Amino acid sequence: MSPALPIPALSILTLLLPRLAFAQTFTSCNPLNTTTCPSNPALSTNHTFDLLTSSFPDSAWNTTAGTLIYRSTGADFTIATRGDTPTIQSKFYLFGGECEVWLRAAPGQGVVSSIVLQSDDLDEVDWELVGGNNTHVQSNYFGKGNTTSYDRALWHPVADPQKDFHNYTTRWTHEQLEWFIDGAPIRTLKYAEANGGKNFPQTPMNVRIGVWAAGDKDNNYYTVEWAGGVTDYDKGPYTMSVSSVRVRDFSSGKEYSYGDTSGSWESIKLAPGNSTISNELNKPPPMTASQRWNHLSPGAKAGVGGAVGASCVVMILLAAVYCVRQRRAGRRERALADGQFESETRELMEYRAKMSKGGFAVSSREI
């Protein structure tokens, strides 16, 4: 497996880089500092968001930056001008689980396509695809926001990620983390390998997907170097596309909360009950007319049939009355027309009779 950058350069950069996916990584309340943070809504199910036929539903996702455009190939995340960072974040959390994203990376020097799982206490699991590198993808992780070292990133070969869609999957339990590309395992991290578990991501995480310009000229020098150089916005737009997202929560319950400020998975409390988001996602679609009919009881069907029959009889009677009235009106109109014709005929006959008798002869005086 060849690295995306020469090994010496990569070693230096991974030691000096700031948090790479900063466009997606943040927390509004850190449970390491307080026990009053809001609970995390659980997913508690397995669900696929097919973006070829639908969009990210508002019941499960927030667009936290920019605008997504939906096309026949899925959802497009586009950097068109400086400052664009289109990003979407799930309203649900996974406490152990799987996240599978079919993605085509954005091209462009300094442009980074990201898939991030992150918890409120800044546990994090990353996929990052750098626009200036069309042969490798990076996997990474952080525990509790610990950025004292940057030796956790690994690069993995992938065929033409900016032209073709690939399946990037993360599987996460309390024992290990696994990364897969197109179904093939490419990396495994055991709990004990992450600083004895201290840096192992282990608390409920939501899903964040987006694209950002790590190569912006105002970013840290080493971030720009890692991203392949300064982003030239004039050569854009730069678009990342997502055709499908499948998520599976290995835990169940209504929501997850932190029992203390330790940040350990053992401290997480699972509230019993049904997940509101799961109920919304699994709600059956509205029934068609034929489906509604099939769900009626025999008595209800008979009642509907009787009502329809009665309505038909009423409509027939109304139509008959209308026809009778129209016929009567027609006869009256015909009688009036016939009377007028007879009157005009009599006048014409009288005129002809007078003409034949010379009753209308012209006098010499008038000549």
Quick rundown:
By secondary structure, this protein is α+β, with helices and mostly antiparallel strands.
Give an overview in words.
This protein is α+β, with helices and mostly antiparallel strands. It has helices at 7-16, 221-226, 276-281, 289-294, 298-356; strands at 40-41, 46-50, 61-65, 68-71, 74-79, 87-90, 97-104, 111-119, 124-130, 136-142, 154-157, 166-172, 176-181, 184-190, 205-213, 238-249, 255-258, 268-271. It contains 5 helices and 18 strands. Strands 2, 4, 5, 7, 12, 13, 14 and 16 form an 8-stranded antiparallel beta sheet that branches. Strands 3-6-15-8-9-10-11 form a 7-stranded antiparallel beta sheet, with no helix packed on it. It is elongated, with a radius of gyration of 38 Å.
| Stretches with pLDDT under 50, minimum 5 residues | 1-23, 360-367
How much of the sequence lies in strands comes to: 25-35%
Helix content: 10-25%
Overall average pLDDT: 85
Distance between the termini: 126 Å
How many runs of DSSP E, i.e. beta strands? Answer: 18
Order of helices and strands: HEEEEEEEEEEEEEEEHEEEHHH
**What is the CA-atom radius of gyration, in angstroms?**
38 Å
Which structural class is indicated by helix and strand composition? alpha+beta
**What is the overall shape?**
elongated
How many H/I helices? 5
Q: Which sheet architecture does the biggest sheet show?
A: 8 strands, antiparallel
